[in-house]
Please model this.
Amino acid sequence: MGRKRSSLIGMWEATQVELQGTYSTGRVIDLAKYIRSANSVRVVAVIIGTPVPCLLVTLIIDFMPLFDPSKGIEANKLFLVREFYGFTVMTLLAIHQFRTGVRTVLSYPTKRVIRDALIVAALTVGGLYGAILWIGFPLPFTTLLVVPVWLTLTVIPMGIQWAKDLLENPKAVAMLIDMVKLWLCDFLLVFIYPPYFYVFTTLTHTAQMAFALLLPLIKLFMRNLFARAVAHLGDETPGLVIFNADVFGSLFIAYCMQSSPSIWTTMELMVVAVCLMGLSLRDIEHARKGLGELERKVDSGYMWSSYHGAVGHISLGGRLPTTLERASILLERETQSPANNSRSSQLLELKRMILDDEQEREGPTLVTKITKKSSVGHDILRMFGSSARIHPDAEQSGKKVEEDTRSTGSRTLGVQDRLKYTRKVRRLLYMAEFLLLLNYVEVVIPLIFSIYLVITYYLPNREYYAIYDGIDQIQLMQTLTNVLFYCLLQLASFLLLVFMLRRMLGTEKRQEATSELRHLLSLPLIPPTSTMSAPANAADDQVELFKVKKLIKSLQAARGNGTSMISLIIPPKQQIPLISKMLSDEMGTASNIKSRVNRLSVLGAITSTQQRLKLYSKCPPNGLIIYCGTIITDEGKEKRVNIDFEPFRPINTSLYMCDNKFHTEALGELLQDNDRFGFIIMDGNGALYGAVSGSNREILHKFSVDLPKKHGRGGQSALRFARLRLEKRHNYVRKVAETATQLFITNDQPNISNLVLAGSADFKNELNGSDLFDKRLAAIVVKVVDVSYGGENGFNQAIELAAETLANVKFVQEKKLIVAYMEEIALDSGKYCFGVGDTMKALDLGAVETLILWEDLPHHRYVLRNESTGAETAKILSPSEESVDSNFVDADTGAKLETVERVPLVEWFANNYKQFGTTLEFVTARSQEGSQFCQGFGGMGGILRWKVDFMEMDYEFDDDDDFDEDAFM
Model:
């Protein structure tokens, strides 16, 4: 008996689509992010608004009136318009469904989808019109005659678009076959439900009750067919299955309800639905076994406090996180590289400290009471490096800080348990989404069907629908009673499901359903935008600029023998095959080089370039940059260098050079700021011309002038002196205007985006209103400011006064950032740090909101290995400390440490700053504020999220200049 029961359970579970999949890591993180950002109004709007476009698209066709078919096609021109509209919508949906299923390997631009849909619809309707003229109107068996033609015409543009890629990519062929299976499943629905409905309407009421039990079985069968067809789509499987199989099934249930006057048929289907929902909830409860134990293992002994990552900054304040929050945090950490598993992102708190009232008012001050001799301190440093973060207990915020000298057991979640926990949560979320969408469809489709029936009843085309034969308004309302009653019962079932899932999973499932609906509402008419290589924000943009600068410096310093160093820059939309052919031709030319050594080097470089080029099927959106060749190292050895990357912004230069050096001149345009502002500062002593772009402030030209001042001479000479004075002022304004044209006009166009006029007298206004001033420059004057000085001091003051206009210029942003940093220091808020040592401690705590680095900071990060023990240690050393031998000796054993890695600290931060949950800002020493920060504060500091008492933090290193951090390995 038990074996039969197990077999039945196994068969049942094998047919349940929701048990066959799991959420991906990215899906869990996206869901957590959406739930944190969505509000109730947005949730309700998505739930209610999702079906509205479907209803409108369906109703539009019925607003086109039809006339008596006996009058022929000449009287029914709108019939052809209806058909054109219908086939356009069908073609759009078909092509979009295909491109959605294969979008990871094949592309189909939205403009082409619209164009092809219109062409296919026009050709189909043209064929239909020809058949009508030949056979007659109305055309018998229209669907059977026209649909095969439409199918053929729909497949042709997809074949043209993808033929070449399909020949080169076997994976694309397999995915396309799966989408063909999905299409066949869609057509199978058309051949299953209409015959079922016909048979249903011919049966007696008693027979209808029995026959209605086939509907859940048909839906179950179609779900499994669809699920197997779209299994390769992963996270999108629930949505595609429900919005294909179950929408169709729910629609025909609504048809059956309005055709059956028996309330018992409705109750029967409702009982079946409730039973199926109960079984699904049982499956969820079964899958949930062991989840609570794993959560307790995480939560017991530790205090969740805060986290900063892709889901945003989660502040828990001592409360336990929800299942979704906990899983999203753990999964995000799993996706990070080993280097990203820094202790700065640890969430498990090893000790609870209590703040007094004053500290609580100022914000959470992080205090650690660890001494060198404390076993707790050794345990923390051994297990978590210098990353243990101690946060206040939210429930005991009124007590004094006390040192807890007890040994704290460090219970962490093992890798196996963590994977088991996240796998369970991913599976549960997948099941919950499937159930929610299923029940949502069961509620919405009958409601939409009822609205559709009521609206079309009052439209002129109702006489052509058999459903309205011999029915008046009262009978219509009576007919819809069963449908609305079924809809009401399904709504109660849906609300019950939401309540049960919230109790079982502890997450906001209504918002999960909304997240999925919002995803499914991404209309095909909105072209996707690629942000693969684009920085996420302005701070990331500056980091990318820094990386390009460092790359350019490294490439410029490289030298090789002969002409074995290839520089290849391909602008966007360039054809990769053309470049490959050019390299093949170069290969033939290089074969004729007389020097054997040089010939082999050049051929090797060209071969490497060709191999790099094969990694790209088409040119990336921003272009492609490749450097290949053999360089000579400082030790005189040869080293092969192969670099290929997509720049973070489009590059419009085409270059191929084979030389003894890499050509990086074209990369300079990546460093240029998009906005370059010009300045003219003029007063009675002279004029200065300057430009501000990015973090650069440049004085272009300046000259002095000797203008006559006002005087008290009278008599006959007064008019002559006044005339001479005005003449010299006029000549001065003329010279300023002519010089401005020379400096700011290139190739008949301004070489600046905007111009600022400044001065201490009225000269700036005279220049701005003068006919001598070039109209092209006058058109881009954005601000006229009064300054107290002339010359360079006036230039600096003009930049400050025009700060709003220059808000996006890096030079101004840098000044504002450092001023904000200095204000924190002046206020003694405690929310700042400077120097390498304190800044690394604050980063380790996750307390740094903005990390400020001098881009020329000379410090290096060393990874040192003790050869006898194999232990590795990371140190940050200044240039003077690099020459001290004791820094490369193990303090305990006296063994010499081997250098495993030496990386400039600024470069290491450029690649790893995100693991600390901070934003990175580079500054220069070009401005007065920047120079003060670099020279007076060590070139490294940060603005903190909360106050940190560095005096209380004793981390087993002597001072800030000798920072030894086990956490940054």
Observations:
- The longest helix spans residues 415-457.
- Residues 292 and 305 are 20 Å apart (CA to CA).
- Residues 14-49+176-301+412-528 form one domain.
- DSSP finds 32 helices and 23 strands in the chain.
